[in-house]
Design brief:
It is a single chain. The protein is of the alpha+beta class and about 525 residues long. It has helices at about 1-25, 40-50, 70-80, 105-125, 165-180, 205-240, 295, 365-380, 420-450, 465-475, 485-510, 515-530; strands at about 30-35, 55-60, 65-70, 130-140, 155-160, 190, 195-200, 245-250, 255-285, 310-335, 335-345, 350-355, 360, 390-395. About 40% of the residues lie in helices and about 25% in strands. The radius of gyration is 56 Å and the shape is elongated. The strands form five sheets. The chain has a four-stranded mixed beta sheet with strand order 4-5-6-7.
């Protein structure tokens, strides 16, 4: 009974273990539906999942909800149709949920402000580096009969993953400023969840700081672009990792506006010409000084003038206007142009193997260095008038390039994802447990079951052996057997009887193993005593 109970327990344990393994690998894989949820959103999503009978799991104290992997996309679309998750934000759907018939203008303005803040927060949260966002807007209303107007402002609190770069911070400022009428980027304040000020909403010094940050980013971008260009070219010529390039760029931070006006005296053109001719005939008084009506009548002849004097004059005026060609040129030089470039290139030599297989370093020739120098000058846009410098030096690297990890290999068959590693670990643990059960539990039990017990076995005596067995085996038709010697027949009969006796004894031993053991033990004891 003890063996049967042990075997039953082992069988139940094995069945339960393999049932657990089967359930574990046949169960659908769960994946996060949403993470970092608030309690309100988590409760609303769980209620929605229960209403549509979808199995789910809660992790991280309700902040993470897991569902089957093949239903994630469909469930997200279904929850998005219901406006979930809201993440504590209300968008323009606030106007769909309220009756605006009896709402006052104050309530409508507040709802519009809440909707605008919620939509901006949702847009900012859609960025890859942003976990959460809260937006607060101040939109002052212009009073009647007042010329002065206050500009709108905005303050943003961000929950970030890692740290935001200067470009990402400015992108958020421009995003919010472009969505609000009259809002400028220097009036958008940004603070992260650790309380660090990422962007100030003041004037003056903040503009200078922002411009300095832009210039620094532009300088870094120019240096990185030129360095990658030169390294890519040298890697194709010399081999991967055989050259190191550093670029230093000096950027002009000044913004210059120049206006020039040039007159060309040789480019005269007649614009207008005017000729004026005047003639004058005047009659003087008579010589005797008398004045009569006849003298003053029109058309009076000279004879009628009775000796009066006559004056005549003619005047000609000519006016010519010339237009001189004029050139007006306005040149605006924006900040950010390159004033000077300095490029340093270190090139490794060649490695050859001698007869013994040892690597031998060989420097590059002066002709190769000159060719590399010419290639680098062309790649960076070298300008001697600008004061650019390019230095190419051949030096032996401390570590051979083929021994270094270049990190340019594409993902291979051994590159596993996190899910693959978790599945492999689960299978390894299951295999280890299976082997442990097999070698440390099942094998000892089976071995013990197969071993004989130490209890004595009672064997039957010679008198208890059926006498008819020997007679039955010896019965045979005499006429069917050939004539044989008598001693041969006796030996055959004796052998058959012994075989039959052994068979009967074996049957008795199988039916009574304990008694057989006791009998054998008694025989051994009697032999030892004799």
């Amino acid at each position: 009974m003890a063996r049967i109970a042990a075997m039953a327990v082992v069988a139940i344990m094995l069945l339960g273990f393999f049932a657990l393994i089967t359930f574990r690998f046949s169960a659908p894989q769960m994946a996060p539906l949403y993470t970092d949820l608030t309690f309100d959103d988590s409760a609303a999503i769980v209620s929605e999942l229960q209403s549509i009978n979808v199995p789910y799991e809660l992790r991280s104290e309700g902040a993470t909800i897991l569902v089957t992997r093949d239903q994630i996309t469909q469930l997200r679309m279904t929850l998005a149709e219901s406006g979930l998750p809201t993440r504590g934000q209300v968008g323009y759907e606030i106007f769909d949920q309220q009756n605006t018939l009896g709402a006052t203008s104050f309530v409508q303005n507040i709802n519009q402000l809440r909707a605008l803040e919620g939509e901006l927060a949702r847009t900012i949260t859609s960025l890859a580096r942003i976990k959460t966002a809260r937006v607060h807007l101040v939109l002052p209303e212009r009073e009647l009969f007042r010329r002065e107007r206050k500009d709108p402002t905005a303050s943003i609190v961000l929950g970030v993953r890692g740290e935001l770069s200067a470009g990402e911070i400015r992108a958020i400022q421009h995003l919010v400023a472009a969505a609000i009428e009259g809002l400028t980027t220097n009036r958008v304040s940004i603070v992260d969840d650790a309380g660090r000020l990422l962007a100030s909403g003041g004037d003056g010094a903040d503009d200078i700081t922002a411009m300095a940050g832009q210039m620094e980013e532009r300088t870094l971008g120019i240096e990185t672009r030129l360095r990658n260009r030169v390294e890519s070219m040298l890697n194709n010529v010399l081999g991967p990792g055989r050259a190191r390039v550093q670029v230093s760029a000096e950027i002009d931070m000044n913004r210059l506006t120049r206006t020039s006006e040039t007159f060309d005296p040789d480019g005269q053109v007649v614009r207008s010409s005017q000729i004026r001719e005047l003639s004058n005939n005047a009659k003087g008084p008579a010589q005797d000084g008398s004045v009569s009506v006849a003298n003053e009548l029109p058309g009076a002849s000279a004879d009628a003038n009775n000796g009066a004097s006559v004056e005549q004059s003619a005047t000609t005026e000519e006016t010519t206007n010339f237009e001189i060609s004029k050139t007006t040129q306005t040149e605006v030089s924006e900040a950010g142009s390159i004033k000077r470039l300095s490029v340093a290139v270190v090139v490794d030599g060649r490695y050859t193997q001698d007869a013994g297989g040892a690597a031998t370093y060989e420097p590059r020739t002066a002709e190769e260095i000159d060719q590399i120098n010419a290639l680098v000058r062309s790649a960076v846009g070298f300008m001697a008038d600008r004061g650019d410098q390019v230095e190419v030096v051949n030096m032996q690297f401390a570590e051979r390039p083929e021994l270094a990890s270049l990190g340019t290999d594409a993902p291979g068959l051994l590159d596993f994802t996190r899910d693959d590693l978790m599945s492999a670990a689960s299978m390894a643990v299951t295999l280890i447990i299976s082997l442990a059960l097999l070698f440390f539990v099942l094998r000892p039990l089976v071995k013990r079951v197969l071993e004989p017990d130490n209890e004595p076995l009672a064997l039957p005596t010679a008198a208890e052996v059926p006498a008819g067995a020997l007679e039955q085996t010896s019965e045979a038709p005499a006429e069917q057997k050939p004539a044989k010697p008598q001693w041969m027949d006796q030996a055959k009969m004796l052998g058959e009887s012994q075989i039959e006796t052994l068979r009967d004894v074996g049957t008795l031993v199988e039916e009574n193993p304990k008694q057989s053991t006791l009998v054998v033990r008694d025989w051994l004891g009697q032999s030892a005593a004799a």
